[in-house]
Amino acid sequence: MLRTIKPKNARSKRALDARLPKEVEDPRTTVFVRGVHTGDVLNGVMRDLMALKRPHAIAFSKKNDIHPFDAASTSTASLEFWAQKNDASLFVIGQTTKKRPHGLTFVRMFDNRVLDMLEVGIESWVSMADIKTPKSTPGNKPLMHFASDLFDTNPRFAQLKSMLISLFNGEVIDSICLAGLEHVISVSLGPSVPTSSSATAGAEDFSALPTVHIRTYTARLLASGTRVPRVELTPMGPSLDMKLRRHTPPDPELLKHAMQKPKLKKTDIEKGVGQKRKNKEVDEMGDLRGRIHVGKQDLNKLQTRKMKGLKGGDVETEEREGETEGQEEQEEEQDTDRRKKKRRRDSD
């Protein structure tokens, strides 16, 4: 159990208050930990991932005897201590063994406690230094692309997607300039491997899961003759091919607390923050769509061109009435002419 630290002065109190939960959390600080045996491949992978994560990355220079998935070890206590000391909520642990070579473990924390863990095995790797192209500015938010439906349907790949978003998300912002998207992280899956009939039904076959491909590109905005620029992607590195291995799902009770939203203040409620927007929704592309309800229209009062074909009732009857009115008008005109002639005669 972690001890409670009481502030001794105002400076330490401000430092502790900065670590308290917030409505909009700070960027996740990630700690990169090396195990007892890592090797050149894992050291290079962690170095490139830390370059993409900067400036919110901390690297431990010493090797640590840590085994997150071993229940008998004290790794959980070590992770909780490091999380509280460095105000970190994410760990990337590199460890290679004969049974699991080039293993990379992602550990996500909540309230200085382990929320969930995911282990992957690095199969191939191309470093950023081997790709002689311009690099993006450290600290910029990437544009992440997940090119498979399994990231939304399969729970294993959904956990990987959530973990990668937590790793590279960075600072939460309301809007971003188009020129600020300097690099793109593309995550795709290889073809699925058919499972063997001799595999144990109770054990999970990690080799049957498709390979995960991570590619990083820099984006160039070129002229296209329109308002929308033409985007050209250039490989930046690193390039990773990895397989999913062991994992620990989040505890339901702890996940419930992690997903809990803070209560709104009275001033925010008066401003309308948090209220449900009726007849408004955001589609999968992020566009805001609305629905407008129009009252019942009376088409009989609609003003149209006065044509015989559009008039209501019997057309022949209306034509007869029109002819009768025309004859009456002619008779009135003839009577008027007779009266005028009679007056002229009388005057003469």
Brief description of this entry?
The chain is an alpha+beta fold and 348 residues long. It has helices at residues 10-17, 39-53, 75-86, 150-153, 155-168, 252-258, 266-271, 315-347, and strands at 30-34, 57-63, 90-95, 103-110, 113-126, 143-147, 183-189, 212-222, 230-235, 239-248, 280-282, 288-290.
Radius of gyration: 37 Å
Q: What is the general shape?
A: elongated
Largest sheet: 10 strands, mixed
Number of strand elements: 12
Multimeric state: single chain
Helix percent reads: 25-40%
Unreliable residue runs: 198-203
Biased composition (Basic and acidic residues): 280-299
GO molecular function, one term: rRNA binding
Subcellular location: Nucleus, Nucleolus
Protein name: Ribosome production factor 2 homolog
Describe it:
With 348 residues, the chain is of the alpha+beta class. Helix content is 28%, strand content 24%. The chain has helices at 10-17, 39-53, 75-86, 150-153, 155-168, 252-258, 266-271, 315-347, and strands at residues 30-34, 57-63, 90-95, 103-110, 113-126, 143-147, 183-189, 212-222, 230-235, 239-248, 280-282, 288-290. Strands 1, 2, 3, 4, 5, 6, 7, 8, 9 and 10 form a 10-stranded mixed β-sheet that branches. Strands 11-12 form a two-stranded antiparallel ribbon. Residues 198-203 have low confidence and may be disordered. Residues 1-13, 339-348 have a biased composition (Basic residues). Residues 280-299 have a biased composition (Basic and acidic residues).
